[in-house]
Amino acid sequence: DAVNLAVARDGARLTGRLGDIRIQAGDTLLLEARPGFAEQQRLSRDFLLVSELNNAKLPRYERAWVAAGILSVMVAAAASGVASMLEAALAAAAAMILLRCTSAAAARRSIDWSLLVVIGAALGLGAAMDSSGLAATFATHWLGLAGGSAWLALLLVYALTSLLTEVITNNAAAVLVFPFAEAIAESLGVSLWPFIVAIMMAASASFATPIGYQTNLMVYGPGGYRFSDYLRIGVPLNLLTGAVVVALVPFIWPF
Question: What is the pTM of this model?
C-alpha cells in the first residue's frame, strides 16, 4: 500500500529507473503512502525505521471535484465581471477551507511570504523608477538601440525581461521591466499591449537556469542535472520562444 519515489544507498541517491533497482538490506526508501502506513508498519520486521516526513500530507483526492467546481466558479465570476479577480480569488480561498478541500493551517503554510516581499519590493522599485524619470531616460537610450522601430524595441524588451527572469523571480522581472516598456510605448506613440504580452511571455519562459523558476529547481537534484544542462537546452528554447512571440504578438495585438 505504498509507492516508492526514491532509493538511497550508503547515503547517496540511486539514479536510473526505479523499476530496475533491486532493493538491498540497508537501503533507505522514500515512500508515498496512506496516512495509516507509518503506524501499521512501525513494528514490521521489513523496516528498521519508519518515519513520517513533516508537512508531507497527501492531497485529498476525494475533494478534487469540489476544488474543480470552486475554480470554475471563480474563473466565471472574474471573467464575467460579477466580481474582481481579487474578490473572486478570496471567495474561492474561503470556499476551499469551508468545504474542507484544505485546512486553514495548510493554507497558511502554502503562502510564500518571501516571494510576496520580493514582489512588494519590486513594485516599489518600479514605481520609483517611473516617478524619478529613470524609466524615461532608459527608454530614450533603448530607442536609440532600436532605431525608432517598434518591432525592434519589442524584441529588446523581451530580451531584457528574459534575462532578468533567469536570475530573479518572474514576478519581479515583469514588475521591473514594465515601467521601461510603458515609457518606450509612450515615446513611440504605439499601443502598450504588445509590450505587455511580450513581458508576460518572457517572464514565464525561463528555461536557461535552474534558479529561474521553481519547477526548474525541483527537477535539478532528482534529475541529476548540471547547470550547463540548462544552458545547453534552455538557451535555444528561450531563443525559439522569443522569436515566435516577437513575430506573432504584433499581429494579434497591433502596435
Answer: 0.58
